[in-house]
Amino acid sequence: MPSAIALNGEGVSRCYPFWYDFVKCMYVHENHQERVENCTAFNHDYYECMHGFKAKRRQADLYRVEQAKRNGTWDPVHYRSRMRPEFLGTPYHHPPAEEE
């Protein structure tokens, strides 16, 4: 679990809001099946914030495209399949949790 306090001691840490949303979702849903159905997106958001795999992959894809353009081997059709939204480093979209 991340600390709620940022490294400089001011404000909250970078991933704490994602962790808090995930824990709140886990608390609201009691059985395992509900948790899997409703909290997976929150878990993915938190995991992405901690590790940044999608962002790193997107950065590597953009680097490859830039190198291909410089080398003259750029073919938009070839790279289009890799530029799907799940590779763009965007967060998962899920409905906001209902307030009680």
List keywords for this structure.
mainly alpha, 100 residues
Describe this structure in words.
- The chain is built from 4 helices and no strands.
- The chain has 100 residues and is an all-alpha fold.
- It has one domain (16-87).
- Helix 1 (16-28) packs antiparallel against helix 2 (32-51).
- The longest helix is centred in the middle third of the chain and has 20 residues, at 32-51.
- It is elongated, with a radius of gyration of 18 Å.
What characteristic shape results from the CA principal axes?
elongated
Give the count of helical stretches: 4
Kindly state the number of beta strands.
0
Q: Briefly note the structural class of the backbone.
A: mainly alpha
Tell me about the largest β-sheet: none
Order of helices and strands: HHHH
Number of domains: 1
Query: Distance N terminus to C terminus?
Result: 25 Å
Overall mean pLDDT stands at 76
As residue ranges, the low-confidence spans are: 87-95
SS strand fraction: under 5%
